[in-house]
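Troubleshooting log. The previous structure file for this entry was overwritten by mistake, so regenerating from the original sequence record. Sequence copied from the archived sheet and checked twice against the printout by T.R.
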Amino acid sequence: MRRPAALTAALVVLLVLAACSSGQRVDLGGQSAGLTAAIAGEPDQLDPQRSTAYFSFEVLENVFDTLVEPDDNLEMRPALARSWQVSPDQLTWTFALRPGITWHDGSPLRAGDVVYSYRRIIDEKLANVDKLNAVRDISAPDPGTVVIALRRPTPNLLTNLGGFKGMAIVQRHNVETGQIATHPVGTGPFAFAGRKSGDSITLTANKSYWAGAPRVSGVTFRFISQPSTALSALQAGEIDWTDAIPPQRVEQLKGDDSIHLAVTPGNDYWYLALNEARKPWDDVRVRQAIAYGIDRESIVQATSYGTATANQLAIPQGNPWYTPYDRYHHDVDRAKELLADAGVDHQNLDMLVTSEYPETVTAAQIIADNLAALGITVNIRTVDFATWLDEQNSGHFDMLMMGWLGNIDPDDFYYAQHHTGGSSNAQKFSDAGVDRLLDAARTEINRPARQDDYAKAATIIADKASYIFLYNPSVIQAWTTNLTGYEARRDGAVRFRTAELTTGGGA
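Regenerated output below.
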């Protein structure tokens, strides 16, 4: 890391912010002034390979690159790799890197950086190790070439490498000096400039970005947990963009000409998970009773005011991998029968939610009312997200609610969460049939056969209530009419690389 460069970047950002505070934009050599975005929570850390928090990825999407990346239709396209070739047996993938790419500190990107990044995920068993499960070897025969050798055909390899920034290419020096968590160095369109704990993170434009310099001088991500506060800030011109939109205001905002509102069908899903390492939740009949006992439509209305779609599987209707499933409906009598069959009467249930995802708190209140009819007392435990992650990882919960965001390939929806050895299987679900199907689908080149494997696995996952799926939300974002060149994406990725602000915007 070059401290003088970082200090210079920070001074530029301070000048931009000073100009914005007076309501004026400044001319920075063809770039418009800095953009201010409000997100609903603070990143837990800035190491993209260690974080699993959406708030982190909202920021890091703009700092780091992946080898390939999804386009607007979620098809994988070149990024740091300009092209690739696959051997006839599907076991060797050869990637050619773009020439001349540099890290934010000015040092050149080499193929060895890619090898190091993937080896780190594998060797340290980081959050995304499942995505490299089939990798036998990674090598760099020259500074511009990366070769990935696989143990078996992997039809979703490109999605695994580029579907989200958890697979970012990181700089070895940045990692080994321990600075990546506090001052990350990437190759992305914006460079990290500074962080004010509890308040904001500032980025500055990377004028040497391989896809062209951003049109804004930088981005300041402000942490505003209350959606009403974020919306008021947007309408007052204090910020330029936010995804913290009160769902109850969506219909009203559709008629507000002072902002641009985007409500985009998404690939995300929200779910409940019961801890199968604890009794009585290890009994499938008890989990199924919970699935029958909850009222999804009420949860959807309370959390999204109808902007989401109730679903009983992860993948939404309209997605080519969608599987119809409607076993569960709100049926208190059926739920009571299942509990009686399992010999379970009154229970106290510890439900883990986080204030940084307000929908979990709202849903918990509905669920508590629903389950009271079954003789189950729900004790809602609301914590900050960092604590939520710790409690989930340590198994300190009876039930939790959360969402999976940014999914593309069906493997993203199911493997890590429901395979016995899955890295995100916090509920400790294990089913040999599901394991076989998910493993088979990972290597199946024939698309219809692969789709059949996932349909069967998903059905068992829902039947045995590994997750109790609730709904698929829409991606809801809003921005000032002075912000152009930005599009809301189905995968929830927040990309400001092509954004531009005209004179008179917020911030």
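Confidence is low (pLDDT under 50) at residues 1-30. Archived copy saved in two places this time.
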